[in-house]
Amino acid sequence: MNHIDLLARLAVENQNRIVLLVLDGVGDIRCADQPATALDRAEIPNLDALARASALGRIVPVSTGITPGSGPGHLSLFGYDPTDPEADIGRGVLEALGLGLKIGPDDLAARGNFATVDADGNLIDRRAGRIPTSECERLVEAIQADLSSFDGAEVEVVAGEEHRFVLILRGVGSSAEVDDTDPQKTGVPPLAPHPRTADAEPTATLLADIIARMNAMIADEPKANTVLLRGVSQPPHLPQFSDLYHLRAGAFAGYPLYRGVAGACGMEVVPCGKYFHEIVPTVRENWERFDFFFLHVKQTDKAGEDGNLKAKIEVLEQVDAVLPELLALEPSVLAITGDHSTPAPLASHSWHPVPLLVHSPVCFRDDCQEFTEAAATQGHLGTFPARELMGLLLANAGRLAKFGA
Amino acid sequence: MNHIDLLARLAVENQNRIVLLVLDGVGDIRCADQPATALDRAEIPNLDALARASALGRIVPVSTGITPGSGPGHLSLFGYDPTDPEADIGRGVLEALGLGLKIGPDDLAARGNFATVDADGNLIDRRAGRIPTSECERLVEAIQADLSSFDGAEVEVVAGEEHRFVLILRGVGSSAEVDDTDPQKTGVPPLAPHPRTADAEPTATLLADIIARMNAMIADEPKANTVLLRGVSQPPHLPQFSDLYHLRAGAFAGYPLYRGVAGACGMEVVPCGKYFHEIVPTVRENWERFDFFFLHVKQTDKAGEDGNLKAKIEVLEQVDAVLPELLALEPSVLAITGDHSTPAPLASHSWHPVPLLVHSPVCFRDDCQEFTEAAATQGHLGTFPARELMGLLLANAGRLAKFGA
User: Fold this and answer.
1) Interface pTM (ipTM) of the complex?
2) Chain A contact probe: residue of B81, B362, B365 with most A CBs at under 10 A
3) Domains and CATH numbers, chain A
């Protein structure tokens, strides 16, 4: 039996609360150019003290050597196998979920860009000069007023930041297997929405008509005079947190993608700020509403992606300073880890195992004296696939029945 | 998705070279009679210095407690699941590939022995007194002159060492599911080639006729007056290294079996000597031709099989002395491990996890101070299935794309 099926079979309810704090990309490497990691160097007395009263270990995000994107990295943390085609969440759906929009089984979503074409219809700017968000909102409002339905489909257009928007078509039913219209380069016209399967032909036709209608409406705009669509997709069929784990789960993440993944797993996306010192108070306000709290800190990953070890150290120290506020809520189980490593020397996501800390009254206090990659290598939890982490958290919360008599 | 399918999907090409140095059977055990292993006792300053600048860990050859033969041990290292029936490489094919012979999908191969029967047709020596290789070559030459084709099949007979030869039948098409004719004991006649399935009946008939023809030709020889066949087999359908991993792979192994496995995986078998000090110069001469170099050192296993700890220590020290020549080639990734352990106290292959060293600019320099079984147990790479090693090597070489957005 798969691990997740076993958990679904054994999960029970109780009053114990679980907090999963994801420091995105927290893992790092020691190498010739960087003899110590951000965790090695940061002054994080609260994390280190917690480590001494916790069990440490490491998780492997997908499998040995595989570097995950943010979507697969989080799906693993939440217990799913991200290599399962059923778990493939399209970018359009992710974006829509991240904006807090509901997507039903017959709906489809796409990411949109406003862009600029010249008099010959060739793209000269795929982001319309990054028009201000207010400008985007004005255009979307006009389009939405004109386009609330089209050919039997309910149309919803929602503004994002700068040139970005999300297009949702409700009650379409036909397949979303349609190629992007963004050619990913300038000097050529936007592509037609090409169906990849015969099932998707009605969808492609509908999208082409909607694009033509939008383009006609904005043809006289100085910059945002055309639209590009990407990531046309339908919601994945992921078993939901409440059914799987009997958890009322809340997601506290400041960025759309992470909200999107959490939403697809059945978590309630709670609006909150982007920084840990903003997130923790929102968690406190919602403490009675949930059993499971997913907290996402993006800035560790951002610093790693920028190759900026100093910034990564600073983020860790900021998190450490706020940690006592989170501990004051007295979660039954607190896990701190990342969805993958983002080593500063690589300036990108990587495959390296990610340090994990699990604190609970029954976690096994091992000999690890600090929260670092090297300490975690020696920890009681060992090194295991990230998608088994939920089992460990439920177990520590007393939320799994015994298997067999 | 299986790990190997994931690798095939994500593998990309670049200029980085990977060297996999297999010290056959290198792993050993500490026990009452042997308180320190060969790696513990050997003076290997170069390996130990490399360990300090590398990540260590351990691989499990097949799965917990399973002792692999050399074929399965190497298939795992190369990323395949040796328990998959598709990965079952017959001994005849292994022997033929090891001699550098090509085996097509409609061909079959068998290992042959010249043997001695008495006047009643009963075996008195299954190896014909280990006749000299020159004698074997003389007999094979005569047989080949007579038997270039038989009943529509192209026949190829190739001399091996002493009493051994390989028989290849080309364009047979029918199944190779035919039992050995070697009864594995003396005092009885050779067995008839018995078909295990109805599909294999034509093959069995053909082989019986060929055996009769060969036996008639050598009936008057003083020692080599009959032939025995074993391991009748067809080539496996293994995905090839170039397709799977986008690697131009070269095998540098002094012994036929290892060449055979490497050839079955799509590596080019490069003729080379049997000792590490002979292998490394051949690698250097071919450095521009490949992206992946499989180097095989047999003598560690041989010493273990002989229960000779002293000899195993000496082989390790010889390898250590030549290691700087390999490092001077500056491979992007260098991995050193074994296909299994061959503990001297057991004088045989074993199931114990095998120490692994991975050196690259981004490998994570852990706290291990030497290359030993005990140090590797504490290493950053943890303990993982050998068949995931290729993922780690490709990742360290920057040859895997990110999985998902």
Assistant:
1) 0.88
2) B362
3) 3-89+237-396 (3.40.720.10), 93-233 (no CATH)
